[in-house]
Automatic annotation (TrEMBL):
Residues 12-31 bind DNA. This is HTH tetR-type domain-containing protein. GO terms for molecular function: DNA binding. Keywords: DNA-binding. InterPro entries: EthR_C (IPR049397), Homeodomain-like_sf (IPR009057), HTH-type_Tx_Regulator (IPR050624), HTH_TetR (IPR001647), Tet_transcr_reg_TetR-rel_C_sf (IPR036271).
Length: 178
């Protein structure tokens, strides 16, 4: 329903239950409200974003510019895969303290992983002097906010060029000699 252009606020519990082919009471057996549903799904989104980053987050001490490009591509595809959940997070975060807190935790986690990766590139002597922890945090926020707002408007056939553009910006900000 979100992928059809409806905001989460427009979708009722009855709509969700009907689409899932369950009784309304069954929904409430598992979730107290839409916010709790979205909160549970956020864990899946966060894991897929981290997994999508590949070597950039998992083994950054060996990462090179190509690994970062691949990581950005994985992140782009994770956002596309979960665009409906990301839209629901956007809808609920301003009004639901739990969703907002979980979103902030997700961003803190992503920023921390980016900072560690940039630090590892510095340890290898491959990073620009200006590629600080603050730059890592800013790049994480820029990429996340851009993908949150625009990946749903991007056709699947255009995801690689979007990933290439974000990868170019990110690699250029971090690595020497590019």
């Amino acid at each position: 329903m979100l992928e059809e252009g409806n905001s989460l606020g427009q979708i009722t519990i009855d709509d969700l239950a009907s689409r899932a082919d369950i009784a309304r009471s069954t929904f409430y057996t598992h979730f107290k409200d839409k916010g709790e549903l979205v909160a549970r799904l956020m864990g899946v989104v966060t894991k897929d974003i981290i997994d999508g980053a590949g070597l950039w987050f998992k083994n950054s001490e060996k990462a090179n510019p190509e690994d970062l490009h691949e990581g950005i591509k994985g992140i782009v595809y994770a956002f596309k895969k979960h665009q409906a959940i990301v839209a629901a997070i956007q809808d609920l975060a301003p009004h639901d303290d739990n969703v907002r807190r979980l979103y902030e935790e997700m961003m803190t986690t992503l920023c921390h992983k980016s900072e560690l990766a940039v630090h590892a590139v510095h340890q290898q002597g491959k990073a620009k002097k200006q590629a600080t922890a603050e730059v890592a945090k800013i790049l994480t926020w820029i990429n996340t906010l851009y993908l949150t707002n625009f990946v749903s408007k991007c056709e699947s056939k255009d995801l690689d060029s979007l990933a290439e553009a974000l990868g170019h910006i990110t690699v250029s900000a971090i690595f020497n000699g590019n």
